[in-house]
Amino acid sequence: MYIGAHVSAAGGVFNSPKNAAEIGCEVLQMFSRPPQGGKPKPITDELKEKFQNAMNENNIKAAYIHSPYFINLASSKPRIYHASISILREELERGTLLGCKAMMFHPGSAKDVGEEKGAEMVIAALDKILNGYEGTCQLLIEISAGAGAIMGDRFEEVGSFINGSKYSDAIGVCFDTQHAFASGYDLRDQSGLNLVMKEFDKHIGLNKLVASHVNDSKVDLNEHKDRHENIGKGYIGEDAFKYFVQHKDLQNIDLILETPLNDNRAKEITLLKSFRSG
Predict the structure, then answer these.
(1) Are 183 and 153 contacting, i.e. CB atoms less than 8 angstroms apart?
(2) Along the 278 residues of the chain, how does pLDDT read in single tens digits?
């Protein structure tokens, strides 16, 4: 288990390993392109070398890419649907060039097409994204908080996306403590966490779990809102993260903070590391 955070790649992705090391990260997450839209900088041989050198110099074990925010694999607008597919494939290719471990994304919202049609669209999109892909950066579906018609908040649904794809073996999952909690999965004590992991294994499979975002929650259980809070400051509570870090089923995944940016980030990493060691 390695511990890290989402860090800035402003000025170039090669800056992210240094930014990560400064707060004690062992792994990092970043955007490889502007998250709100816009043309990405190409991954040239020079940029690739600078990034990999920075990873080595700062002793960062692995890098993850988070997809842009505007992705929607259930959009009723063909332009958005097809652009989402194209960009996710492009991000996988960019991640492969950089040597990144995986790229996580949110499936999107089915508000215009309905849940059943939305699921069909997501599965078809997964097949298009992975068709002919031979890269090393893995595609990860991120558990969502389920606000409105946002897809991917239930383990059954995420499992159906993966199992419905022709490329199910290539797809993994990024858990998110805040999103899961907001979706009704109670992680606050040991017994609750055990039940959540049992449910995850039943519907998705623990072998699919690659990484987890570790965030406390500004909203209470089952409120279906995506609202991250600093560790120990929200409704999940500090003890839950100790149980999470020490859980027997989670020892081979990477943990990535996406808590609110403030002076606490380095302290949160130190705290999670202390849970890991004892």
Answers:
(1) yes
(2) 999 999 999 999 999 999 999 999 999 999 999 887 778 899 999 999 999 999 999 999 999 999 998 899 999 999 999 999 999 999 999 999 999 999 999 999 999 999 999 999 999 999 999 999 999 999 999 999 988 889 999 999 999 999 999 999 999 999 999 999 999 999 999 999 999 999 999 999 999 999 999 999 999 999 999 999 999 999 999 999 999 999 999 999 999 999 998 778 999 999 999 999 76
Contact at 8 Å (CB) between 167 and 130?
Answer: yes
Distance of CA 276 to the CA centre of its chain: 20
Q: Which residues make Cβ contacts (< 8 Å) with residue 259, sequence separation at least 6? A: 5, 214, 215, 216, 228, 229, 230, 231, 265, 268
